[in-house]
Amino acid sequence: MKPLTKLSLLFLIGLMALLGSSTGCSMTNNDDADQRDALLADPSAAPARSMKDYSVEDIYVECNKTFAISMDYLNELNDTGSFPDETDKTPMCFIRCFLQKGGIVTEDDKVNKEQAIALGWVKNGETIDDCLQDMTGNPCERAYFLMRCVSTRHLVEGRSKDSKKR
């Protein structure tokens, strides 16, 4: 599969359906509503975009100009559930750029839950609500930890479906 085609597929199945370490997403909801609300975009202020509004490949190229990341690095993320080096901020900032260009994270670093659902990045808002508590650190780290949490859920759900097929 071509690298950018693979990137497109990954974006649609979990915005790269990546990530998932055992220290990733908290699967419990501590119900810190104020913290969650502070991280969510106002849906009326951030209308959802359709997939026709941008190209995943164009977003990759544009973000990669500022935050250079190799496809190998993204493949590692896809295969293992995390970046090989979680202290390197450049790939985390690439993720932030990518999520912003896709409309999932706003320019002021809030999560557009409706866009995440509209793109099929999450099945429902509960995933976003639960993952908001993982958004700590600087803006790039918050975007990465959000992605890691959401992707952990995708990986866990995928494994669950695979085990049911057997």
What fraction, in percent, of the residue positions are helical?
40-55%
What global shape is seen?
Answer: globular
Count of individual beta strands: 0
Structural Rg: 15 Å
Q: Largest sheet at a glance?
A: none
Question: Between the first and last Cα atoms, what is the distance in angstroms?
Answer: 26 Å
Total of helices: 8
> What class do helices, strands and sheet pairing give?
mainly alpha
Low-confidence stretches: 1-31
- Strand share of the residues? under 5%
Average per-residue pLDDT, rounded, comes to 74
Q: Overview of this structure, please?
A:
The structure is a single chain. This protein is an all-alpha fold and 166 residues long. Helices cover 55% and strands 0% of the residues. It has eight helices and no strands. The chain has helices at 3-12, 33-39, 56-66, 71-80, 89-101, 113-118, 125-131, 139-165. Helix 3 (56-66) packs antiparallel against helix 5 (89-101). It is globular.
Name a few traits of the molecule:
single chain, 166 residues, mainly alpha, disordered N terminus, PBP/GOBP, signal, secreted, PBP_GOBP_sf
